[in-house]
Amino acid sequence: MLVNEFRKLPRQIHACCCLALLVVISWALLSQNPFAAVRNTPLSWLKTVSDLILHLAAYTVFSTACCSLIGFQGDPTVRRRVLILLVIHALGTEYLQHWMPYRTCDPLDAAANLSGIATGFLLSLWLVRVGSEVRV
Q1: Dihedral sign, Cα of residue 59, residue 65, residue 70, residue 73
Q2: More confident residue, 115 or 104
Q3: What interhelical angle do 107-135 and 76-96 show, nearest 10?
Q4: % of the chain with per-residue pLDDT over 70
Q5: Region class of 117: left (phi > 0), else alpha (psi between -120 and 50), else beta
Q6: What is the rounded end-to-end Cα distance, in angstroms, of the chain?
Q7: Which of 104, 16, 19, 101 minimizes the C-alpha distance to 55?
Q8: Is the Cα dihedral 31, 33, 38, 43 positive or negative?
Q9: CA dihedral sign, ordered 81, 85, 90, 95
Q10: 5 C-beta neighbours (distance < 10 Å), count
């Protein structure tokens, strides 16, 4: 029984990481000044990176984490629902920026978010396939 509990642990940690990414990305997209958190830290260089690249990278990581958690051998309905939720989050947070002080709703950012979701989906598909080949 202890072995079965130990096998569930990585999946639970993975789910917690997906949840943490959801919180961090939501905060970064909806806060007035997300770069204030990294000021005077080794991550302060992020302020110089293009906004579109940051959106693309954030949603690529988020989508890869979420899609690799569900895998691709299971029910395709679950996979579709996860992708729909990712798209709703990407477009919803961008739309909500319209009412946030010092933020703007930018269609290019939304396009970068959607591109990141697609890239993350394809990357997770590749990672799951490579991982299943290594286990065999």
Answers
A1: positive
A2: 115
A3: 150
A4: 87
A5: alpha
A6: 24
A7: 104
A8: positive
A9: positive
A10: 9
- Single-letter residue type at 44: S
Of the candidates 87, 126, 80, 81, which has an alpha carbon nearest to the alpha carbon of residue 110? 87
Residues listed for the chain: 136
Rg (CA), the chain: 17
> What is the C-alpha to C-alpha distance for residues 84 and 22, in angstroms, rounded to an integer?
14
Q: Which amino acid does the sequence have at 56? A: L
Q: Where are the alpha helices (DSSP H) in 1-135?
A: 2-30, 51-70, 76-96, 107-135
Which residue from 13, 14, 5 is spatially nearest to 61, judged by alpha carbons? 14
51-110 pLDDT, tens per residue? 899 999 999 999 999 988 887 666 788 888 999 999 999 999 999 998 888 888 889 999
Query: Hey, where are the domains in the chain?
Result: 2-29+51-135
Using the structure block, give the residue that is written with the tokens 């989508």.
63
